[in-house]
Amino acid sequence: MGEVCIIGAGSSGIAACQVLAERGIGFDCFEVGSEVGGNWRYGNDNNMSSAYRSLHINTSRQLMQYASYPMAEDLPAYPSHFQIARYFDDFVDHFGLRERITFRTEVTAVRPAPGGGYEVTTRQRDCGTEHTEHYHSVLVANGHHWNPRWPDPAFPGADTFTGEQVHSHHYREFQPYVGKRVLVLGIGNSACDIAVETSRVAERTFLAMRRGAHILPKYLFGVPTDHLTTSPVAKGPFWLRRLTLRLLLAVARGRVTGFGLPEPDHKVLSAHPTISDDLLTRLGHGDIAVRPNIARFEGDTVHFVDGSSERIDVVVYCTGYRITFPFLDESVITSADNEVALFHRVVPPDHPGLYFLGLIQPLGAIMPLAEAQSHWIADLIQGRVRLPGTAAMHREIREYRAALRRRYVSSKRHTIQVDFLDYLAELRRARAVDSRPKPSVTVQ
Ligand SMILES: Cc1cc2nc3c(=O)[nH]c(=O)nc-3n(C[C@H](O)[C@H](O)[C@H](O)COP(=O)(O)OP(=O)(O)OC[C@H]3O[C@@H](n4cnc5c(N)ncnc54)[C@H](O)[C@@H]3O)c2cc1C
């Protein structure tokens, strides 16, 4: 029986490879594409990357880098996807991991084995050879930004709209949008980037959203803004944290809310602002026109919920992604409503030996969190710490979900949200707590 199977060599999977290798834990890592880097490999031949040509990280490199392998000092604060993919190449080469990854090999099925562990079936892309192997543990790192989420149900009239409808997953370059009337739907990071880019070449760009949003500039006082939003100051005493965030948001106020839209989609100030200088500038200059949500389509026209309408050539749906595990049966794990029941966002309570990596949406970057998750998983595999009972794990999941509901409006976007520093601290605590049952002492 193999020790551990890692599914995917994106930034989460390679973080796990590095940690397990360092701990001397045997593993096989399968990657359906030909290279590492997953979403950050533009034009990845896994056909799963959502990267567009102009994509840069929106979390600063200082926040995104692995603790075990800092990014080069001469990289810009917000590197491009080309630079990030090169960083991942350097990472696997530095730690000698490349030859330990089996490329062009898809994991097609993971089934709990009768005597414990999991049967993992793989298929080699070139020759179609299938192989099944038994593993003690499986680490799922297949990413959650590749299966497009379309509005469900579709807007009335969408099926007869004469313009084009695309999802941001398929947006690559601005050329097809030159001279067009473009409607971008959504206010996440992709929506901001795509609206900014098309507004430079399109006849008009409209940005429609259900409710307002806080947009922060990338730099404040010469410092990458995410340092301020996740710095210990911003996580200090409540009054200091509130003051810091109020100051930050004051910089953007007025330009990001209003427009007749409902308030931003979170209930407290600290949650999920989007970072984009260009959007603020281009909104200010009137290059991008804000609209509320779509009400319906009619011919070549989009009607909005405030009664206004525009003739539109192409709608870009920046409506997010579905969490999907094609190789796992629904009876093992379900991601209905984009919710996955995971203790500390990693462990499904009822399936020992199965772990999920990077299945989080942080205010901050995923990579160092996936690295910290890998350390906790390695502790669990090596028996350095143990999990509490399943009832306690389910309770933690219920509490996490209740906290999300208190903080955000109900939305499929906020089902796996974490705060960068809080979550790092949570994982540190999980690693420190030994939940092993204490040996009972018998008094003679
Ligand atoms: C437009 C955009 C911008 C983003 N910007 C940021 C940012 O600035 N900062 C940030 O932290 N995050 C950002 N993200 C989130 C991004 O998803 C993560 O940074 C990162 O890609 C997560 O890495 P991952 O390894 O978990 O998933 P992925 O990068 O998606 O990697 C998953 C890997 O698993 C492989 N795989 C999948 N299924 C199988 C299978 N069955 N068998 C074998 N291999 C498989 C895939 O080929 C892929 O290589 C952004 C996402 C998008 C879409």
UniProtKB/TrEMBL annotation:
Q: What is its main location?
A: membrane
Q: Which InterPro entries match?
A: FAD/NAD-bd_sf, Flavin_mOase, Flavin_mOase-like, Flavin_mOase_5, FMO-like
Task: Alphabetically list the UniProt keywords.
Answer: Endoplasmic reticulum, FAD, Flavoprotein, Lipid metabolism, Membrane, Methylation, Microsome, NADP, Oxidoreductase, Phosphoprotein, Transmembrane, Transmembrane helix
Gene3D superfamilies, A to Z: FAD/NAD(P)-binding domain
Give the EC number. 1.6.3.1
Q: Which domain of life is it from?
A: Bacteria
| Catalytic function, reaction form | hexan-3-one + NADPH + O2 + H(+) = ethyl butanoate + NADP(+) + H2O; hexan-3-one + NADPH + O2 + H(+) = propyl propanoate + NADP(+) + H2O; N,N-dimethylaniline + NADPH + O2 + H(+) = N,N-dimethylaniline N-oxide + NADP(+) + H2O; octan-3-one + NADPH + O2 + H(+) = ethyl hexanoate + NADP(+) + H2O
Where is this chain's protein located in or outside the cell? Microsome membrane
**PANTHER family xref list:** DIMETHYLANILINE MONOOXYGENASE (PTHR23023)
Describe its function.
Acts as a Baeyer-Villiger monooxygenase on a broad range of substrates. Catalyzes the insertion of an oxygen atom into a carbon-carbon bond adjacent to a carbonyl, which converts ketones to esters. Active on diverse carbonyl compounds, whereas soft nucleophiles are mostly non- or poorly reactive. In contrast with other forms of FMO it is non- or poorly active on 'classical' substrates such as drugs, pesticides, and dietary components containing soft nucleophilic heteroatoms. Able to oxidize drug molecules bearing a carbonyl group on an aliphatic chain, such as nabumetone and pentoxifylline.
Q: What is this protein called?
A: Flavin-containing monooxygenase 5
Species of origin: Kutzneria viridogrisea
